[in-house]
Every structure is written in structure tokens, then in C-alpha cells.
Write a structure and sequence with these properties.
By secondary structure, the chain is α/β, with parallel strands linked by helices. The chain has a single domain, classed as Rossmann fold, CATH 3.40.50. It is 47% helix and 15% strand.
């Protein structure tokens, strides 16, 4: 799918980080954009930047994606507004850096709602419309935590593993339709997710890529034909974990 000034894209988690960078990058291509997040004031700032970059349009939908009914309603409203969305980018996510021994059921449920169930429900709300039009794309932004388990991030990893599995099966189910699925696997990207209240400090202390790198990868995935994109490419780590899980776990546990 080529991104043109007539392309309409809804991006969640767009008030900062990867989502904001993606909206601005889409704006530079002249696209029509809808942006979703909880923070209305931040969304307004991102909308101004996207429009300044060249977006044909940038509409704001403040929404707490932990409210699943509101998430579905937002997806349908955006589709109606644009006269048919071309792309849904499910990027919103929240962390939960806490040892599994201290993880409450409420926190686990909240992380799963925002990071997994909300993207699924939004995609499923749009899927019948995409199928009727025989076109459309769902881009799910997961994480390296969805391919390798990370210490003190069981809830986050669970949500991202679930999103990976869902995306793979969904892509297979829709393979012979006009609806495409893309899966993005970001590694260390320099966003606010690393420094959040009520979260332990992250164990990773290496270099991080700017959000624009992930945004560029998302745009390339929309226009390309590959299902999965790692950004940066850390596939070797996944391959090592798969072939030697005990050594991997020992290394992670003793970081």
C-alpha cells in the first residue's frame, strides 16, 4: 500500500514516543491521520506537528484504551469520519515493571486490556468493514518483550507475546483476502515507557534508538510486503533464546 495524501491512518498511543513520531512521519507524506491517546493536550501538540509536516488532515480522539467499549467506539468513529480507514496502527502500550511475586491481578488485567485486548477489539471492530471493501491493513506494534521474556516484566511480556500470536494467526486467516496484517517488533526505543511512576527501573541500560527510527519502520512496513519487522534488528537474540532457553533464562535472571 502506497501512502498518499488520500491514505487515512488511525494511530493509537500517539501523544508521545513511537506513536507521535509515526503521526508526524505520516504527515510528511501528506496522509490523513487520526490520533488516539489519553492526553488531549499532548494530542493537540502532535496534531499541530503532523499538520505542519504536511498532513492533509489530523483528527484527535482522546480515549483511555483501557476502556474497551470506548476503544471500539473510537475505531468506528474514525472509520466513519474518514469514509473508510486504510490503516489501523495499534501502538498504545503501558509498562508493568514489577516482580511477578508482587504483581496484582488488577494490574495484570489492566496491562492486558491496554496492550492486547484493546488492539484486538479495535481491529475486530474494523475487520468486517475492511473485508467488505476488500482492502485495509492492521499494524500491531508489539515489542522484543513479545519474543523474549524480560525479568520483572511478566505482565508486559505476556501482553506482547499475546499480540504477536494473535497477529500471526490473524495474518494466516486473512492471507487470501484484501486485508493485510503487519507486526512491528521494536527493541530499545527512547520513549517515555522507560521512565514511568510505579515501575521499577528497567534493567536495560544500553543505547536506544530515537522514535523516528521505529516510525520509519512502520511506514516501510505499510508500504512493503513483509509481515514482521524488527527495529532495530535483534532477531539473533530471539534465535539464541529459541535454541538455548535455559542459558538465556540464566543470563536474564542474573543481569
Amino acid at each position: 500500500m502506497q501512502i498518499t495524501p488520500s491514505t487515512s491512518v488511525l494511530v493509537t498511543g500517539a501523544s508521545s514516543g513511537i506513536g507521535a513520531a509515526t503521526a508526524i512521519a505520516l504527515g510528511s507524506r501528506g496522509a490523513r491521520i487520526g490520533i488516539v491517546a489519553r492526553r488531549n493536550d499532548r494530542l493537540d501538540q502532535v496534531a499541530e506537528q503532523a499538520l505542519a509536516a504536511g498532513a492533509s488532515e489530523c483528527q484527535v480522539w482522546p480515549c483511555d484504551l483501557g476502556d474497551l467499549d470506548a476503544a471500539v467506539r473510537t475505531a468506528r468513529e474514525a472509520d466513519d469520519h474518514f469514509g473508510g480507514l486504510d490503516v489501523l496502527v495499534n501502538n498504545a502500550a503501558i509498562p508493568a515493571r514489577v516482580p511477578v511475586q508482587e504483581l496484582s491481578n488488577d494490574r495484570l488485567d489492566h496491562v492486558m486490556r491496554v496492550n492486547f485486548t484493546s488492539p484486538v477489539r479495535m481491529g475486530q471492530a474494523l475487520l468486517p468493514r475492511f473485508l467488505d471493501r476488500d482492502r485495509g491493513m492492521i499494524v500491531n506494534v508489539s515489542s522484543m518483550c513479545g519474543r523474549v521474556g524480560i525479568i520483572q516484566e511478566a505482565a508486559y511480556s505476556a501482553s506482547k507475546y499475546a499480540l504477536c500470536g494473535w497477529s500471526e494467526s490473524m495474518a494466516a486467516d486473512l492471507w487470501n483476502t484484501g486485508v493485510d496484517v503487519r507486526l512491528i517488533i521494536p527493541g530499545p526505543i527512547d520513549t517515555e515507557i522507560w521512565d514511568q511512576p510505579d515501575n521499577l527501573p528497567a534493567h536495560f541500560d544500553g543505547e536506544k534508538e530515537p522514535p523516528s527510527v521505529a516510525a520509519d519502520a512502520i511506514l516501510a512496513a505499510i508500504e512493503g510486503d513483509r509481515f514482521e519487522t524488527y527495529v532495530p534488528d535483534m532477531l539473533d537474540i530471539v534465535a539464541f533464546k529459541t535454541t538455548n532457553i535455559d542459558m538465556f533464562l540464566e543470563g536474564v535472571a542474573n543481569q
